[in-house]
Amino acid sequence: NLDGAKIDFDKALQLDGNDATTYYWRGRTKSDLGEFKLALIDFDKAIDLTFKEIGIIDYMSYCARGTTKIELNDYNGAISDLTIA
């Protein structure tokens, strides 16, 4: 139930809007729903928060963002993200 999952992730982010893991999984859910541009926003946020919180690169979010960019025909952006991942 992807729509239900997205609603649950929205609720979780209302409680803690700085949880990188929740942004990642909401992005994955949006991507699975075909909401690719919205998914990119969540992956961007997950990448940013992970680096700020723990000072490391969020490889999973870079990989997910890269594969999402493929869906949007942004091949240069995909190559960049997937190279980092």
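Second entry:
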Amino acid sequence: MAETPQIRLGSAPDSWGVWLPDDDRQTPWQRFLDEIAQAGYEWLELGPYGYLPTDPARLRDELGQRGLRCSGQAVFAPFHREDGWETSLPEARAVAELTTTVGGQYVVLLPGLHTDEE
């Protein structure tokens, strides 16, 4: 008999209206983590780099206090621009390092066309 794959459900800061690392109109990161845990999620995407703490020890602690685990993170990059990869590489590396350090396994590169970047 074939084994049934396990489905893991998670969420991300964008479900709480968070699109930028720092915007006073967005849900504060502590409230987001509290509410995602209260909603019963165990897994999350980290959201825009800099929204949650970028110090790995602190982020691990904040997630652990709430019983949360990181699945991965997305990096938005303006690949439509000639210098898109070059300008996005430092953030992509920082995201990948933080994600893997706190246990995440996935980094997804997405075009940055959802913003007003030229």
